[in-house]
Amino acid sequence: MMNLFEWPVRIYIEDTDAGGIVYYANYLKFFERARSEWLRAAGFNQHRLMEQGLRFVVRDLSVKYRRPALLDEEIIVTVSLDEISKAGMTLNQTALRRSDGTEEILAEATVRAACINEAGRPVAIPADVAEQLTPK
């Protein structure tokens, strides 16, 4: 698995406020989608994990908003694994704009996710899953 995963997101009218600026809560949706695609790129789709009785849920999230994303822009949302523990992981995420060879951070988040079972109880991340998610 790569250390930095990138997922493109197009900004639609439904993502914005009346001024064409992305509504702040929608960054959480963009971050969630990128994490789902990061898992898929690592070989895990959500249904397969659920069939194994596993779910990753956000337990803590901190976001810093820096610049606005605008209607019709394509932004990049990144995911990188910072730390993995027995039953959770910490991820760093950014939403950024690339233009003319430069990058501008729009928002950045630190996300702590827990691994839980079907009953909502914390469980250890299986060794094969942890190994696949850990950057090489």
Provide a descriptive summary of the structure in words.
This protein has 136 residues and is an alpha+beta fold. The chain has helices at residues 26-41, 46-51, 127-133, and strands at 5-10, 55-65, 74-84, 88-99, 102-116. Strands 1-3-4-5-2 form a five-stranded antiparallel sheet.
List the helices and strands and how they pair.
Blueprint: E1 5-10, H1 26-41, H2 46-51, E2 55-65, E3 74-84, E4 88-99, E5 102-116, H3 127-133
Antiparallel strand pairs: 1-3, 2-5, 3-4, 4-5
Poorly predicted runs of 5 or more residues: none
How many helices? 3
Tell me the total number of β-strands.
Answer: 5
* Shape designation: elongated
Q: How much strand content do the residues show? A: 35-45%
**Describe the biggest sheet?**
5 strands, antiparallel
Termini gap: 7 Å
Q: Structural class per helix/strand content?
A: alpha+beta
Lateral strand order in the biggest sheet = 1-3-4-5-2
Helix percentage? 10-25%
Radius of gyration: 16 Å
Instruction: Give the topology string: H per helix, E per strand.
Output: EHHEEEEH
Q: TL;DR?
A:
With 136 residues, this protein is α+β, with helices and mostly antiparallel strands. It is built from three helices and five strands; from the N terminus they run βααββββα.
